[in-house]
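Q: Give me a protein?
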Amino acid sequence: MSEGRSFSHGAGGGAEIAARFGDLHPPFDRQGAIAEANRCLFCFDAPCMGACPTHIDVPGFIKKIASGNLAGSARTILDANVMGASCSRACPVEVLCEGACVLHRYNKQPIEIGRLQRYAMDAFHASGDKLPFEPGAATGWSVALIGAGPASLACAAELRRKGIRAVVYDGRPLPGGLNTYGIAEYKLPLVESLREIDMIARLGVEFHFEAQVDAGRLAELEREHDAVFLGVGLGAIHRLGIAGEEMAGVTNALDLIAGYKSGELTVVPERVAVIGAGNTAIDAAVAAVRLGAEEVHMIYRRGPEQMSAFPFEYDHAREEGVRFHWFVQPVGLEGEVGIEGVRLVKLEAAEDGSLVPKVGSERVLAVEMVVLAIGQGTHTAFLGEVGREAAQVELERGRIVIDRVTGQTSHPKFFAGGDCTNGGREVVDAVADGKRAGIGIAAWLEGRHVGA
């Protein structure tokens, strides 16, 4: 069990990785931050607040920056979003708060809300200040949280505010989920993810690492605790189902990102192919460039209009030198021992609109590494097994079904949030889910014990 430990001490992949993965959006200095803050119109009914899943008082924290009150600015952010530091770096602000900025109506650049939020949060961490709230008076109630990603961390912080014991179980050596292991270093450095979790841990959150929770262990936790929060995220990245995937040189985007963030992976071959066109695929492709690949190819079976990556992520990848191949599909992998190439076929539209292989279009793209990034499976199969030892949790296409207001599942003692309920959205969505569930759990426990 880990309680009170500093996770960020000694974390990271070293100076070389830090140099290669410098900030995508450099931080403001004081002069720049104040100038940007003073561009804000401080809207009364600010659409940026509505566009933020955690509903941070954006005009409020920006006005405090403009007046030089950085401590107050950070308090405003943290009161709404305890993971405001990581969200300031990892959020796709272009489609959230900044995308809703009223300055768009006047053909002006939106306020750089993400960078201003980071400016306030960096100052907060540098000051050594504590969170603007303390743990509540002990209730005697206890909640087990499965998974240590953003949803569970936000839920745990909310529970501690209400005096409820929060015990987090995770199968990996470090907390943070995708914040720690799966977000590109140039967006959210490993050390920054862990520094934020240090702050949350000081609320008295307890952690158990390398603790695998299966159906049997979940049944035990249900008996040991007053409620259970499921923040188990998603499962493994899908495989292609073609010959050669077992060869050396085939990996997946999440393992690639986790490898270089930890310092275990410092270089990749000269030619790399990334299969997929989502945001994680983009992160993996850019990582390959920064890890020394001379050619990085992204392979996608549809066109640019259908890719799930945000347009600004696509533009960034192109700037980094990533080459895109549209309407092509891998049909085989070449090589004797390790990968030497990926066999591709061109796709074209059939009469019914479906995509079919074009006759005679097969070719081999020479690469020494193939990175799979074609979506993740669910990680909830063990919940389907719970029925023999504990109450069933309703699933829909592998996702946990919850009440979107409270986070409660079909089994009243179980709550859930994050990717395991929404199929994989943003960090800030997981934080919002976790906070709502923390409030929901506390209300449910209070309701059960009224008059008891």
Notes: The mean pLDDT is 93. The first strand starts at residue 142 and ends at 146. The domain at 142-171+211-235+378-449 is CATH 3.50.50.60 (FAD/NAD(P)-binding domain).
